[in-house]
Amino acid sequence: MTHGEIALTGNPNSGKTSLFNKLTGGNQHVGNWPGVTVEKKTGTLLNTSQTVQDLPGIYSLSPYSPEEIVTRNYLFSEQAKTIINIIDATNLERSLYLTLQLIELGKPIILAINMIDLLADQHLVLDLHTLSTRLNIPVCGISAKRNKGLAQLEKQLLKQPNERPFLEYDQRLETALSEISSIIKHKAAPDKQRLYAIKLFEKEPEIIDRLSLSTSERQEIEEIIDITEQIFNLEHYEIIIQARYQLVDELVKQVLIKTDSKHVAFQ
Ligand code: GDP
Ligand code: K
Ligand code: MG
């Protein structure tokens, strides 16, 4: 796909290591419990010179545990050029919250929906095409364990991604984010402005330091956040969380379809 590394990321137990082994021909330990991968592991995409990193599982990009910090720092770094977000098809709602945060990073990303073999038993069908259209990123249905959909995923990886992913939240939040973006436009590259605006809205100390904002810039941003909190009648961090969950809710309702019979979940 590109120079730079492919980051394999997702919730604990979503099948990251299973997929990593298939993509790299590796033999890392797979286990049905969280936290097996406590350090990132490196491999090479078969038949290429492309590096793939198997990362510790995370639920959010606002990390608490040491493993989450490893993953988050790597994903924010320039080393991580492309992201494969692997999610568990039977845990769509919980998984997509992280997906939205990963899209916020503004890097090329492929969504690999794993464990698709388990959907039929639950009388569920996933509309992958609509999900891809709504998220504006490539979506592949796979089963890492049963070797399904992997050729398609590999094909997608070799394509040159041309667009930066971008998702719109609640318009009242978007207004605040674009005002913050314009305050930092001389301090951050265009492809980082929206991400940093979100992180500033979340009041992440690391980003505030990284941009070395002046006192007046900090004050202006603080005012934008205050006004937005009044509009929503919520705290700043709640506004972002709510915006993501609203979108996740909408998506799940639209793409997860209950069926009467056991359909073949994908061809
Ligand atoms: P990780 O924690 O994200 O690295 O996940 P693992 O690769 O260790 O897998 C977690 C568990 O899910 C293991 O028991 C795997 O065998 C199982 N698993 C992985 N992929 C699939 C799949 O496509 N279908 C099913 N049914 N199970 C899977
Ligand atoms: K595991
Ligand atoms: Mg693992």
Automatic annotation (TrEMBL):
Function, in words: Probable transporter of a GTP-driven Fe(2+) uptake system.
Residues annotated as binding GTP 2: G35, V36, T37, V38, E39
Tree of life domain: Bacteria
Residues of the full protein shown: 1 to 267 of 704
Protein's name according to its UniProt entry: Ferrous iron transport protein B
Subcellular location: Cell inner membrane; Cell membrane
UniProt-annotated binding residues for GTP 1: 10-17, 54-57, 114-117
Family statement: Belongs to the TRAFAC class TrmE-Era-EngA-EngB-Septin-like GTPase superfamily. FeoB GTPase (TC 9.A.8) family.
Domain FeoB-type G, residue spans: 3-163
Positions annotated to bind Mg(2+): N21, T24, G25
